């Protein structure tokens, strides 16, 4: 494809936020039909290279600086990879549970942030609603109780991260082979005090997301949706496990593509394509090739890949979710929000389980075993499966680092969603700010944390230039709320 | 009287400094009562819409786009604050300055163990911004009035810094708030 004579080029920039770390370009043919629409990720860090030569034990604290929205995911994923290097194949119960507690605190805060601060304005006010109110302050004015709830939910998750890692952002809790602190009784009691409230609010959020999805299902079923494969890790019995497990991939009909693939073998089953127009790579399942092997990750995929959830309230919610598509996986892009809230509820239940476990107060924190030169860590991050892979030399210095960041796996899907929404809503129409927001709504469903490759956060400000085929400015629309 | 205006941006940072602003929790609503947010991740403004009293900068500059945005902030803000270690001294992204940009690109797009790139092509489309050879801290690019260290700076430090600037009062951040991690 690519640009042809007579095309009009529309640029949505920046898509993700003011700095322009991501943008969308849309090519319209002479009839105003969408010929091509792309999401470009415009940020590059070079982490894989510049971290070489650093000692491996720095990884859990250094690599989380890729992303301040979900630093715990990188912190724990790197720690898991480094566990292999120090030969810690099985952590002490205290270390395992403190890390899991931290991880579920992270899920809780990150999902609350996305739902209440980022997605709620679109869902509450409408995709094409007033640009001035379409932000978290607007939500706070129109629905003060809901906004307050979102703030307090995020706060609770952040506090759980703090008591397990020392800091809300960029903590140091996980170390090679374990953790550096346990959870005191006072810290536990503090978190427990708000647990019933958090579970109740998480249930209410599931209800909100479900009602929204079901009452708009006709519209949403067709909104940036498409059939796809799905990938995640699952526990050995098929349960949803956000912290540990083996890789499972299913196709659009729910048939197994692979299952039980141990983390260390991830590179046998996955590869990443490179395209000149984005700094973000395009992962795919090796056996299926770059054109057909793409897949989705994240909350929606996890609802599809797991056999069940091991906490009762979230499992009941999952069954309701799965009931809408029967035996087939759910492919509705906007159902990511509903799935995300089910996971929020699951995270709260898990946090409750863990807080009641006296292993959290144990003092056996670190194990070591036979030193190895290579380690792979995989976790489910809020936005999807996250891979960290390191090799180290005899001096403990990193010689190779490979990261597949969650949002990267959704690169092809986000591009598909952008293209499908652009075709449906922009083709042959006068382009308005409200219509352009539809494109962003589809991207937002994935909760793209472009922070790891770029940065995504908040309402996505837009500037759209309509250029003619010679690059002359024909029209300009700036959505700036002023 | 019009409320003071604050603009914020994230350049080559990880967004953790902005998360630290959100870590004001309920006080973020209080802040929204006493100031108006101009261009910021929490609203829809693409460019600074009018003169701002304060600009908060997260992250240094790693590409041409970052430089462009930073200059826009300098032109339009009375007081510019480098928020966090990345803006203040480059932070973790500036570790890239120890190797060549070329080596970083090769590792990411050609040599990595999962890379599939038969044409050995490094992303270079006109639609993606040029990367700078080095990562720069904010004050290497424009004049910065105040530096607030921390990775990220604690919410309480951000809160006090904003109040001190708006009231033109001196600020002393004691132990625990003035830090570099
Ligand atoms: S200073 Fe730390 S928290 Fe702030 S952007 Fe840099 S890495 Fe992130």
Low-confidence stretches of chain B: none
Report the average pLDDT across residues of chain A.
88
CATH domain topology of chain B:
Rossmann fold
Most strands sheet of chain A: 5 strands, antiparallel
The largest interface is: A-B, 82 and 69 residues
Bound small molecules, by name, code or SMILES, are: iron/sulfur cluster
What's the helical proportion of residues of chain A? 40-55%
| Count of runs of 4 or more consecutive helical residues of chain B | 6
Using DSSP, what is the number of strands of chain B? 8
CATH class of chain A equals Mainly Alpha
CATH-defined fold name of chain A: Cytochrome-c3 Hydrogenase, chain B
Low-confidence stretches of chain A: 16-20, 451-472, 474-482
**Overall outline of chain A:** globular
Q: Within the largest sheet of chain B, what's the order of strands?
A: 2-1-3-5-8
Instruction: Characterize the biggest β-sheet of chain B.
Output: 5 strands, parallel
Number of beta-strand segments of chain A: 16
Please give the oligomerization state of what you see. heterodimer
Strand content of chain B: 15-25%
Distance between the termini of chain B: 38 Å
Keywords, separated by commas or semicolons:
heterodimer; A: 482 residues; alpha+beta; Cytochrome-c3 Hydrogenase, chain B; 5-stranded antiparallel sheet; 4-stranded mixed sheet; 17 helices; disordered C terminus; B: 181 residues; alpha/beta; Rossmann fold; two-stranded antiparallel sheet; 6 helices; 8 strands; binds iron/sulfur cluster
List the helices and strands and how they pair.
The complex is a heterodimer of chains A (482) and B (181).
Chain A: E1 8-12, E2 22-28, E3 34-41, H1 47-50, H2 59-62, H3 71-85, H4 93-125, H5 136-142, H6 144-165, E4 174-175, E5 178-179, H7 185-193, H8 195-215, H9 217-221, E6 229-234, E7 246-250, E8 256-261, H10 266-269, E9 270-273, E10 282-285, H11 289-292, E11 295-296, H12 299-305, H13 312-323, H14 336-355, E12 374-381, E13 384-392, E14 398-404, H15 406-409, H16 411-426, H17 433-444, E15 462-467, E16 473-479
Parallel strand pairs in A: 6-11
Antiparallel strand pairs in A: 1-2, 1-15, 2-3, 4-5, 6-7, 7-8, 9-10, 12-13, 13-14, 15-16
Helix pairs in contact in A: 3-4, 4-6, 4-14, 5-6, 8-14, 12-14, 13-14, 16-17
Chain B: E1 5-10, H1 16-22, H2 27-34, E2 36-37, E3 52-58, E4 61-63, H3 64-76, E5 77-83, H4 85-89, H5 101-111, E6 115-116, E7 131-136, E8 146-148, H6 155-167
Parallel strand pairs in B: 1-2, 1-3, 3-5, 5-8
Antiparallel strand pairs in B: 4-7
The complex binds iron/sulfur cluster.
């Amino acid at each position: 494809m690519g640009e042809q004579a007579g095309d009009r080029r529309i640029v949505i920039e920046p898509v993700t936020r003011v700095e322009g770390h991501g943008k969308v370009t849309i090519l319209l043919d002479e009839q105003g039909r969408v010929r091509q629409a792309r999401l470009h990720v415009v940020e590059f860090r070079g982490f894989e290279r510049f971290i070489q030569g650093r000692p491996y034990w720095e990884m859990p604290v250094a690599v989380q600086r890729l992303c301040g929205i979900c630093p715990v995911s990188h912190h724990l994923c790197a720690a898991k990879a480094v566990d292999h290097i120090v030969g810690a194949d099985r952590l002490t119960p205290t270390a395992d549970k403190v890390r899991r507690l931290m991880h579920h605190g992270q899920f809780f805060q990150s999902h609350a942030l996305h739902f209440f601060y980022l997605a709620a304005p679109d869902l509450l006010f409408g995709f094409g609603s007033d640009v001035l109110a379409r932000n978290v302050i607007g939500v706070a004015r129109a629905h003060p109780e809901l906004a307050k709830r979102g703030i307090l939910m995020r706060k609770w998750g952040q506090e759980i991260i703090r008591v397990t890692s020392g800091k809300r952002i960029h903590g140091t809790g996980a170390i090679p082979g374990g953790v550096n602190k346990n959870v005191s009784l006072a810290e536990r009691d503090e978190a427990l005090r708000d647990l019933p409230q958090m579970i109740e609010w998480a249930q209410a959020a599931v209800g909100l997301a479900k009602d929204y999805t079901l009452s708009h299902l006709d519209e949403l079923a067709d909104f940036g949706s498409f059939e796809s494969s799905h990938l995640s890790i699952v526990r050995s019995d098929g349960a949803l496990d956000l912290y540990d497990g083996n890789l499972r991939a299913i196709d659009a009909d729910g048939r197994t593509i692979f299952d039980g693939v141990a983390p260390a073998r991830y590179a046998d089953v996955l590869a990443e394509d490179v395209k000149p127009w984005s700094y973000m790579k395009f992962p795919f399942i090796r056996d299926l090739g770059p054109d057909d092997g793409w897949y989705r990750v994240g909350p929606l995929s996890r609802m599809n890949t797991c056999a069940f959830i091991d906490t009762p309230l979230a499992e009941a919610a999952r069954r309701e979710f799965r009931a809408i598509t029967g035996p087939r996986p759910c492919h509705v892009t906007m159902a990511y929000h509903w799935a995300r809230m089910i996971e929020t509820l699951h995270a709260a239940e898990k946090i409750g389980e863990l807080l009641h476990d006296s292993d959290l107060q144990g003092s056996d924190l670190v194990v070591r075993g036979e030193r190895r030169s290579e380690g792979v860590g995989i976790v489910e991050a809020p936005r999807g499966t996250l891979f960290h892979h390191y090799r180290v030399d005899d001096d403990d210095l990193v010689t190779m680092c490979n990261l597949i960041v969650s949002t990267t796996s959704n690169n092809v899907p986000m591009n598909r969603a952008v293209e499908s929404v652009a075709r449906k809503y922009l083709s042959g129409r006068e382009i308005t700010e409200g219509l352009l927001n539809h494109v962003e709504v589809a991207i937002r469903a994935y909760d793209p944390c472009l922070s790891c490759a770029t940065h995504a956060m908040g309402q996505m400000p837009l500037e759209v230039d309509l250029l003619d085929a010679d690059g002359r400015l024909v029209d300009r629309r700036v959505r700036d709320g002023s | 009287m019009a409320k003071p205006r604050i603009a914020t941006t994230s350049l080559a940072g990880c967004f953790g400094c902005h998360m630290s602003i959100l870590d004001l929790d309920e006080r973020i609503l209080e802040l929204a009562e006493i100031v108006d947010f101009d261009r910021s991740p929490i609203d829809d403004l693409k460019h600074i819409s009018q003169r701002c009293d304060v600009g908060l900068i997260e992250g240094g500059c790693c590409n041409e786009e970052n430089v462009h945005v930073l200059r826009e902030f300098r032109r339009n803000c009375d007081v510019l604050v480098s928020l966090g270690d990345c803006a203040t001294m480059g932070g973790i992204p500036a570790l890239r300055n120890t190797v060549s940009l070329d080596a970083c690109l090769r590792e990411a797009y050609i040599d990595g163990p999962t890379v599939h790139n038969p044409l050995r092509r490094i992303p270079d489309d006109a639609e993606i911004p040029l990367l700078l050879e080095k990562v720069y801290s904010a004050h290497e690019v424009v004049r910065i009035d105040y530096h607030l260290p921390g990775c990220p700076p604690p919410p309480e430090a951000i809160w006090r810094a904003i109040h001190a600037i708006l009231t033109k009062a001196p600020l002393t951040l004691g132990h625990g708030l003035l830090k570099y991690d």
